[in-house]
């Protein structure tokens, strides 16, 4: 099966799927040019930054592909999840969402962002760097919840494979994980 077929195939949760938190949070991403996206990330420097530099208790990393029909269908729910977080003062600054377009160029990521009205920062991953740090090929979408530990490193708190389905229920799952020690 080719990589594109793997990316577009229906997602089945795998108990063996994992991602190295240190490798993921160490990925360097280009600083968004949009001042609102930069402000949302909470990073004041310019140039590339690491996911670990985002000042948040929990970072939700959505791995998507512009060509994934499941990602496209789920975009309104992910946008609603972002809205629910941003309009709740008790969690607004504790949880951040970013998207990484696996195998997508900057142009493709921008097309996805505009077409689906995505308000949180999206980043290209045209070299499949995220694929290379996962235990098996990623079938999009995948949501990786990274929780900050007291020593400022991150641990993978949860991985959700497949569509988020309902934003409210998905947020409750995320909050439950955030409360765990």
Would you write up a description of this structure?
It is a single chain. This protein has 181 residues and is α/β, with parallel strands linked by helices. The protein has a single domain, classed as Glutaredoxin, CATH 3.40.30. It has 7 helices and 7 strands, in the order ααβαββαβαβαββα. The strands form 2 sheets. It has a 5-stranded mixed sheet. A two-stranded antiparallel sheet has the order 1-2. β6 and β7 form a beta hairpin. The chain is globular.
Task: State the gist of this model.
With 181 residues, the protein is α/β, with parallel strands linked by helices.
Q: What features would you highlight for this structure?
A:
181 residues; alpha/beta; Glutaredoxin; five-stranded mixed beta sheet; two-stranded antiparallel sheet; 7 helices; 35% helix; globular; disordered N terminus
């Amino acid at each position: 099966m080719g990589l594109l077929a793997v990316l577009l195939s229906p997602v089945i949760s795998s108990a063996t799927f994992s991602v190295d938190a240190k490798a993921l949070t160490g990925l360097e991403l280009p600083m968004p040019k949009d001042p609102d996206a930069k402000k949302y990330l909470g990073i004041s420097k310019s140039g590339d930054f690491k996911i670990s530099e985002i000042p948040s208790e929990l970072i939700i990393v959505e791995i998507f592909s512009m060509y994934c029909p499941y990602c496209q269908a789920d975009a309104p729910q992910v946008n609603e999840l972002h809205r629910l977080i941003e309009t709740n003062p008790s969690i607004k600054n504790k949880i951040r969402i970013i998207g990484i377009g696996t195998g997508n160029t900057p142009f493709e990521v921008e097309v996805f962002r505009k077409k689906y009205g995505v308000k949180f920062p999206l980043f290209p991953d045209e070299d499949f760097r995220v694929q290379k740090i996962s235990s098996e090929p990623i079938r999009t979408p995948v949501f990786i919840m990274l929780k900050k530990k007291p020593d400022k490193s991150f641990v993978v708190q949860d991985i959700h494979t497949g569509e988020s389905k309902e934003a409210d229920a998905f947020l409750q799952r995320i909050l439950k994980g955030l409360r765990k020690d």
